[in-house]
Every structure is written in structure tokens, then in C-alpha cells.
Amino acid sequence: MGHWLDRNIIEPGKLPLLLALTAFVLTFLVTRSITRLIRAGKGPFRNVRAGGLHIHHAVPGVVLTVIGGFGAVASGRDGLGEAVFAVIFGIGAGLVLDEFALILHLHDVYWTEAGRQSVEVVVLTAALVGLLLAGFAPFGVNDLSADELEDRGAVIVSVATNFLFSLVALSKGKLRMALYGVVVPLIALVGAVRLARPGSPWARRLYRRRPRARARALLRAYRHDRRWSGPSRAMQNWIAGAPDRSAGDR
């Protein structure tokens, strides 16, 4: 583990990226835990208000992101400064993207169905940064052996292929499979080869003159939603909390 860390993270200069990702994920988890406690009326935490205005945590998140970003640029290759600003940036990004849905809708939708978009964006962001750390950007390592070059080339080809599968799944109206397929290749492959969902770009273009394919797609979508909607919602509720019927202050 130590050799891998030195060879693939420290030597190519990706330690700040690892620190930023760790801070990002931990900030999201801690923030979600705190907001759920506030919502339940438990613990010492309360909403922050100034003059009757609810200050969302995306506000300090933006400030920390700006400080971390500009600080990292100003620090150059200073090891300690670069690491500190990377952590600050990760914390700020975690706070901002936890309320991504609010920024997208310009409305407090944190505890609504629309608010689940924040969780999906956080998962996708963490997955993409994780791919960079795992070898998608395999530059900066000196004196690579033939085996290491082959391994890194295989990683790049695998990720590129998986990305294409994810794009096909996305065109078939399978947003979650496309997002999670970035991390788990099998998910993207399954989403790419199975029937498109009704109303998706793929279905509108390719099923337009194929009534049997349209009927099969409708039937499959109905059966899939009936079977998996319950477990899927339960998992989402476990991660992000159950949504309300209407948006409101946390």
C-alpha cells in the first residue's frame, strides 16, 4: 500500500487531489448527518439565520471554494500550502454540491424529490475524481516499467469504453445507470444493451417505426419501476433522508 501510494499518488503530485476528495466526501457525509438531525429536532445543531434570513450552507461553501481555489493557485508547488488549500477547497465543494439542487432550481428543494439531484451530483463528482486518482490521468510518474505502462494503458482504454457505454445508457433514458456506471462498468454495460425507456432520445429516434419495440419498452419500464422503485427509494432515503411533499426550511 505504501509503495502504491508513493508511486501513484505522491510522486505524480496527486496528493492534494486525494486530500480534496477525502475532505469533499467527509464534508458531505457530516453535512447530511447534521441536516437530518436538524430536521428531526435532535442534537445541538440549528439552522443559521441572520435577520430572519436562512443562511444555507452553500454560502460558506462558496467562500471556502473560492479561498481554496485561489489559494491553491497562489501557493504554487508549496507542499504544505497546497495541501491545506486542497482540504479547504474539498470542504467548500462538499458544502456547495450538497445543495446543488437548490442552486439548479433557485428554490429550497433540499427535502423534496428534486433535492435528490444533489446526492447524484455528489456521487458522480466523487466517482470522477476517484478515477483520476486511480489512473485515468496516469501522468507524472517517472521511469515506468513496461508492465506499468501496459497497466495504465489498459486503464485508459477501459475507462474510455465504459464512458461510451454510459453515454449510450444516458441516451436510453437511464440516468442513474449512466451515472453509477462511471464507477461500476457492468452497470453501464447493462444500461447500454437493454431496451431504452419510453420517451428517451434513443426511443424517440429508433423506436418511432417499431411499434413492437415501443410496446416492449413500455412494458419493461412498467415492470422495472414496479419492482425496484421501493428498494431504490429506501436506499436513497437512507443516504439523503426521506423527502417531504413540499420544500421547506431544514
Please describe what this structure looks like:
The protein is an all-alpha fold and 250 residues long. The chain has one domain. 71% of the residues lie in helices and 2% in strands. The chain has helices at 2-10, 15-40, 58-75, 79-97, 100-105, 116-136, 146-171, 175-181, 185-193, 201-206, 211-240; strands spanning 49-50, 53-54. This is Integral membrane protein. The chain crosses the membrane at residues 15-34, 55-77, 83-106, 118-141, 153-170, 177-196. Keywords: Membrane, Transmembrane, Transmembrane helix.
Low-confidence stretches: 136-143
- Largest sheet features: 2 strands, antiparallel
Mean pLDDT: 83
Tally of structural domains = 1
What is the H-and-E element order?
HHEEHHHHHHHHH
In angstroms, what is the radius of gyration? 21 Å
Please state how the strands of the largest beta sheet are arranged side by side.
1-2
The class by helix and strand makeup works out as: mainly alpha
Silhouette: flat
Distance between the termini: 42 Å
Helix content: over 70%
Amount of beta strand: under 5%
Number of strands: 2
Count of individual helical segments: 11
Short description:
This protein is an all-alpha fold. It has helices at residues 2-10, 15-40, 58-75, 79-97, 100-105, 116-136, 146-171, 175-181, 185-193, 201-206, 211-240, and strands at residues 49-50, 53-54.
How are the SSEs ordered, and which strands pair?
Blueprint: H1 2-10, H2 15-40, E1 49-50, E2 53-54, H3 58-75, H4 79-97, H5 100-105, H6 116-136, H7 146-171, H8 175-181, H9 185-193, H10 201-206, H11 211-240
Antiparallel strand pairs: 1-2
Helix pairs in contact: 2-4, 2-6, 3-4, 7-8, 7-9, 8-9
